[in-house]
């Protein structure tokens, strides 16, 4: 029975409500009555009812004040049903802010009240079950982490339904290479299916284990105790039995999902009181996933023979890869990246060391992009590469993700370089158009803009379709023609104004471009 307190300042209305329905048949028991909110507040703190049915308008402390006081006291579990009149709409709106969902209008209809109570009963039941499971999982976590006192073990075993006379191991199943299951519906669906698949496997080969025993270490990673009968374990073969179970689970799960599934087995089989050793060693075994990336099953007994490395790569390795990215050498940069991942595997890098390598490479690329006046946030693969540890990923999956990142980065660098060069050549063009009448040359322009003269000459030809000297000559001749049209300057004066010290040389160059001398050009204009 769920406990109910009725709060109504009119005694006859309160008695009428109590007698309106058969509360017990609805699953409730009216345990107390109060004629104002202040009186009810003390009752709620003492009795902790599941439901309070209250009028809105009451002396001393009204219904809304009562609800707010209960919520302010930290009680989020007690449900409230409000009895209101037609003029209490504004009060009802405020009650919604406190999480009140049920309102009964006066005069109270028996069927409406019964329906509301039935709906609330289902909601209260679900919440109680959820809280109970939460408490059980919290107790199990305490046991797994070794935080439970010896005298608590038996009580926790009873609470979570784990027989204390059995032997236990600990396995972890991990779904790898999801990109972002919190944002991608297809991946979220895969995770739910993965969760259910593990539970279904329990039912087949370890029925003692229940869904509440499934411990989510993080997204895509589930751990669980394995319950074994000591009488059925071959002497000295306990660890082997656990490894066989891990291998069977990995095979079944990998047959069911396209993503790589890894399974990790902790150290041996222990009594329930010592299960934290199995739990901790299973977590420790996960550190070896990049040291033996071709495996799908990792056991503590195998992995502890390896020595994990927590070292850095040589600086030259990073510099070489960044150079290839900046130069856009696709094959060379992919080869350099593959060499880095081969070294990670060969030297048995720990996940923390892998993280440091990837972070240094990514921030190196970001530095290059920033130096070229680019915005690294435009790299679509940046987030997935930088935050790869948010979700489980295989070494092969991480390698593919990183390859995609450096290819995209190289493409951005090439675009920035083209824009940078285009910007420079337009600045140079503008400079020539302003200073054509000075003593300038390809060499002097290249020096001013910190460029190689040969490269600048090639860039001019590629951008404008003419060589630098021809480009400069055309600008000088065009301006000479303007002066010949608009002024009465002598030819030698025009020559000086457009950058020629020698008038004869000017006449020669003018005639080469225009097919006539400056004088002939002016005379032809006068004849029209």
UniProtKB/TrEMBL annotation:
> Which species does the entry assign this protein to?
Paenibacillus yonginensis
GO cellular component, alphabetical, reads: cytoplasm
Matching SMART domains, A to Z? HTH_ARAC (SM00342), REC (SM00448)
One annotated GO molecular function: DNA-binding transcription factor activity
InterPro entries referenced in this protein's UniProt entry, alphabetically: CheY-like_superfamily, Homeodomain-like_sf, HptR, HTH_AraC, HTH_AraC-typ_CS, Sig_transdc_resp-reg_receiver
UniProt-listed GO biological process terms = phosphorelay signal transduction system
Q: What subcellular locations does the record give?
A: Cytoplasm
Q: Which PROSITE patterns match?
A: HTH_ARAC_FAMILY_1, HTH_ARAC_FAMILY_2, RESPONSE_REGULATORY
Q: What is this protein called?
A: Two-component system response regulator
The cross-references to Gene3D superfamilies, in alphabetical order and at most eight, read: 3.40.50.2300, Homeodomain-like
HTH araC/xylS-type domain spans which residues?
426-524
Q: Where's the Response regulatory domain? A: 3-121
Major place of localization? cytoplasm
Q: Which SUPFAM superfamilies match?
A: CheY-like, Homeodomain-like
Coiled-coil annotated spans: none
> Which UniProt keywords are present, listed alphabetically?
Cytoplasm, DNA-binding, Phosphoprotein, Transcription, Transcription regulation, Two-component regulatory system
Q: Which residues carry this modification: 4-aspartylphosphate?
A: 55
